[in-house]
Amino acid sequence: MTTFDVRVARKASEADGICSYELVRLDGAPLPPFEAGAHIDVHLGDKLVRQYSLCNPPGETHRYQIGVLRDANSRGGSQAMHDHIDTGSKLTISAPKNHFPLVEARRTLLFAGGIGITPILAMAEALAAKGAAFEMHYSARSPERAAFRERLAASHLAGQVHFHYDSGDDAQKLDLAALLANPDAGTHLYVCGPQGFIDHVLGAARGLGWPPAQLHVEYFSAAAVDTGGDQAFEVKLASNGRIVTVPAGTTVLKALEAEGIEIAYSCEEGVCGTCLTRVLEGVPEHRDMYLTEEEQAANDQFTPCCSRAKTPMLVLDL
């Protein structure tokens, strides 16, 4: 995996609990180009790697910009970024990856909830740059919790951006029934934010007849899963026939790691796809948010960081 050493050229507070970080290469060279919806891996030491969406205008190669929410339920990433990374800090990052790309459409509807603004902001920049028709709807608890609010209000995007606050009056609340009332084949919808916000937007769209192919989503974390009924199972490595037992309460990833078998991973929640592994035999129990329903139904790959097995054994292409 290609990595780059960067320096934080600027850290800034963008809203209550949200900071932005402007990253430039230590050697002064251009960064790889990226498209709207892309993210980078940020290496924070001791195998702690987190993904953050790029939110500066696509096409810029002199810098990357990311936004990070201080999450009370953080597993270390957001806390490390807020408490230990400042202007001048050095970091190692990956090249951009994009699992949330824009597709060509006659019209685009962008929905951002909270910190979900980061990839949506880059999408708005990209659509505006080519003169495409779009609207952006940004929901937050209050103006003080809306990152990049001032940047948006003062920018060339202002005419396409609509703010919706939980703390505001009913007239400015997000009215999905009205916005999504007339689905047409030329309009695509993108949504990013907390699980509840995503479910709210997608549920409304599906209820109003929007086809799945026109709905695009990026999750920042996986939904909670009831693990009370988990059972032990085995995985077999196709390369050498070695069998490893995966106990209840342990992920395939950790069971393999304990036996000295390493798979590249990052989020450990089934969101990023870094650990995606081919399944040659057996049926996985998919718990990820990365694969589509069609890809999950094929049962020929799974995410060992969170998914398990429906059969006593999985044979993996390892």
Q: How would you characterize this protein structure?
A:
- With 318 residues, this protein is α/β, with parallel strands linked by helices.
- Helices cover 18% and strands 31% of the residues.
- It has seven helices and 18 strands.
- The strands form four sheets. The chain has a six-stranded antiparallel beta sheet, covered by helices on one side. A five-stranded parallel beta sheet has the order 9-8-7-10-11, with helices on both faces. A five-stranded mixed beta sheet has the order 13-12-18-14-16.
- A hairpin with a 5-residue loop joins strand 12 and strand 13 (243-246).
- The longest helix is centred in the middle third of the chain and has 13 residues, at 117-129.
- The two termini are 18 Å apart.
Keywords, please?
single chain; 318 residues; alpha/beta; six-stranded antiparallel β-sheet; five-stranded parallel β-sheet; 7 helices; 18 strands
In brief:
This protein has 318 residues and is of the alpha/beta class.
Work out the number of β strands: 18
Rg, nearest Å:
21 Å
Q: What topology, given as strand order, has the largest sheet? A: 4-3-6-1-2-5
Structural class: alpha/beta
How far is it from the N-terminal to the C-terminal residue, by CA? 18 Å
The oligomeric state of the chains shown is single chain
Poorly predicted runs are none
Set down the secondary structure blueprint.
Layout: E1 3-15, E2 18-25, E3 39-43, E4 49-53, E5 64-69, H1 77-84, E6 90-94, E7 107-113, H2 117-129, E8 133-140, H3 149-153, E9 161-165, H4 176-179, E10 187-193, H5 195-207, E11 215-219, E12 233-237, E13 243-246, H6 252-258, E14 277-281, E15 284-285, H7 293-298, E16 301-302, E17 308-309, E18 313-316
Parallel strand pairs: 7-8, 7-10, 8-9, 10-11, 12-18
Antiparallel strand pairs: 1-2, 1-6, 2-5, 3-4, 3-6, 12-13, 14-16, 14-18, 15-17
